[in-house]
Design a protein that fits this description.
This is ArsR family transcriptional regulator. GO terms for molecular function: DNA binding; DNA-binding transcription factor activity. With 198 residues, this protein is α+β, with helices and mostly antiparallel strands. Strands 1-3-2 form a three-stranded antiparallel sheet. A three-stranded antiparallel sheet has the order 6-8-7. Strands 4-5 form a two-stranded antiparallel sheet.
Length: 198
């Protein structure tokens, strides 16, 4: 999505986030109306209505036509439909592409890890997932660890190795078979733990 398209969508949302403008759109969807008529229906002053109409006109949501000395406004349904469609089909991931997706995870790590050791295992599942992701990356891929080796390695980070082992299995970050553990590819990890893990 281009910056111009993003700004148009932003202006669209801002315009329709105002209660009076939203009501104006509803009234104009029913029929063409003058500023005087709209002001009476909405219990607003005419200059206020004109201000709101100008905001909608800037987005091409409202069109004006003259009828004698009266200016009548109508909703440009085609423009409204086009903008609504753009909202629905836009790649929302692109809207946040400029944000640092790792910033929150880095904050969690700063709060829970000190001098390479885990202060505590977070109670929050979302934070725990970040910690487990960091911890499991301390293990080599394509290597099998015995439970003794795994425990020794985990003790460098936190004394509650049983919980950490169980969580690795629950989030499918590691596989266990006959007392041996190995790290699974990140594509197989779960965001929510398997509750049946013992």
């Amino acid at each position: 999505m281009s910056q111009a398209d993003f700004q148009t969508l932003l202006a669209f949302f801002k315009a329709l986030s105002n209660e009076s403008r939203l009501k104006l759109v509803g009234l104009l969807a029913q029929s063409d109306r003058s500023v005087e008529e709209l002001a009476a229906l909405l219990h607003l002053k005419e200059p206020t209505v004109s201000h709101h109409l100008a905001k909608l006109k800037a987005l091409d949501l409202v069109e004006m036509r003259s009828q004698g000395n009266t200016h009548l406004y109508r909703l440009n349904q085609e423009a409204l439909h086009s903008l609504s469609k753009a909202v629905l089909i836009s790649n929302h991931a692109e809207l946040v592409a400029d944000l640092d997706g790792d910033a929150w995870e880095e904050k969690v790590l700063r709060n829970y890890v000190e001098a390479g050791r885990l202060r505590e295992i977070p109670a929050s599942r979302k934070k725990r997932w970040v910690i487990l992701k960091w911890l499991v990356q301390q293990f080599e891929c394509d290597r099998t660890y015995s439970e003794v080796e795994l425990n020794q390695h985990l003790k460098q980070f936190h004394p509650d190795v049983a919980t950490l082992r169980r969580e690795f299995i629950g989030y499918q970050m590691m596989q266990r078979q006959q007392g041996n553990y190995w790290r699974l590819p990140e594509a197989q990890w779960r965001r929510e733990p398997n509750q049946q893990v013992s």
